[in-house]
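Progress report, Aim 2. The chain analyzed during this reporting quarter is listed below.
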Amino acid sequence: MSHRSATKPWLKSYPPSVPAEVDVMRYASLVEILEDSFRRFARRPAAICMNSAISFAGVDEMSQALGAWLQAKGLARGARVAIMMPNVPQYPVTIAAVLRAGFVVVNVNPLYTARELEHQLKDSGAEAIVVLENFAHTLAEVLDRTAVRHVVLASMGDLLGFWKGQLVNFAVRHVRKMVPEFSLRLDGGRSVTRFNLALAEGTRLTLKRPSIGPDDVAFLQYTGGTTGVSKGATLLHRNVVANVLQSEAWFQPMLDKLGTERQLTVVCALPLYHIFALTACFMLGARLGMVNLLIPNPRDIPGFVRTLGQHRVNMFPAVNTLFNALANDPEFARLNFDELVISNGGGMAVQRATAERWLKVTGCPIVEGYGLSETSPVVTINRFDDDKFTGTIGLPVPSTEVAIRDDEGRDVALGSPGEICIRGPQVMAGYWNRPDETSKVMSEDGFFRSGDVGVMDPSGHIRIVDRKKDMILVSGFNVYPNEIEQVVSLHPGVLECAAIGVPDDKSGEAVKLFVVRKDASLSESDVVDFCKDNFTAYKRPRHIEFRDELPKSNVGKILRRELRA
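Predicted structure tokens for the chain:
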């Protein structure tokens, strides 16, 4: 272990009540956390979607029924079960069911193309899938070429009415029926069952309770594939348990301010198939007895704002693009934010202009953190008692070590850029069935190489410089897109922007800037003049292109690779 890793300079910057270490083995599995919460918070609503609620007791009973039904299909211990849905009430029920039955959750983006879906189902070896019928047409294209034998079809109208005395009033009247035609073949011993029927059949069965331990696999969390083929990060129960408890320890000072008796509301607009929402909304929410306000389609900003207007929310995890879209919406600015105390940003860099606008509108600062699918995800986060935008990703959370290393794996001096490397109980076991890929990212001393370039200052705060592969080399000088984007986004006429490197005969590469206007009168010369005022010559964009919108992932990350293509 390096000297700096041993001294952990970040600890001196910790809030007084946050411990350096947490007991990450307090729970043997995520199932223990969930079942503890089902008992303690039985009468509380666990999720609200389109003005309708499902209680913790309801999630408990339904997940037992669905878990028993899956077991009755003959799936072996550790079988992979895919979930392909947006944020609807069936999602938390299904996650709990799969984990309690001793199986592995494979989260699938419901907007995947057939090619992307086929790869993930084949790579994971999933034998069952729970899919919202709106996306079943994609599954139908690839089903015959996968190992999936059991399909559970959910619909927006499921869970309507009473469930063993628990009212589950799912407001179907708000949902437009948009289900493309599909046909699922039943040959080869395959079964297709409606979600409600699986629940009904499961109530007549008994969930066999397997002994689930820390080293059992809980999730296969697939990366976006930005560095090649999409890979499944193998997250063990102990990885995610650790991250839930690490996050709880960091959040505790703010939670104490709110009081422990009342139920808090967390906005779950980020998709549950993404690791950020999976841990920060669903698992941490269950641990703390919060109600998840499920937003199936956060891109419908007017509808999203109407929903927010019906609730007093306390915690709001989001990515920069979502914060930005809401902060610039006049109807959003009219809402009451008196009880919003935590706005946590991740997934991509939070830009100063967005952070300042959000603070002005809501009175609640965005606290930026950093994480990856491979780290369950939280690695670092800023203090919640600091309302100033720092541009850093904060401090390593308890029981976490971060080293900044050069290409040879040596620690660099504080203040020098290098690759962010992470060691802690939340780091994955490896990539599913890809030992070669795992060996590329794990060091001999147990650090995960993130591929992100960062700088740690003497206080332990870390600033992301950029992804290694996104760096632009101009006449031998390193230019980092994040820096260009952060500054240009401060221009009052700019809504969004993205920078990439393009080939250049003179300098090797040059900076190209894509801009979405906030002010229709914004001209190229306006941007050029602004950049002249803010960047040294080699950093200034050589090419500027205006766009109506920028390509984004379903989590809201701007896709620089698509701009490069």
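The domain at 471-564 is CATH 3.30.300.30 (GMP Synthetase; Chain A, domain 3). The chain is about 30% helix and 25% strand. These observations will guide the mutagenesis work planned for the next reporting period.
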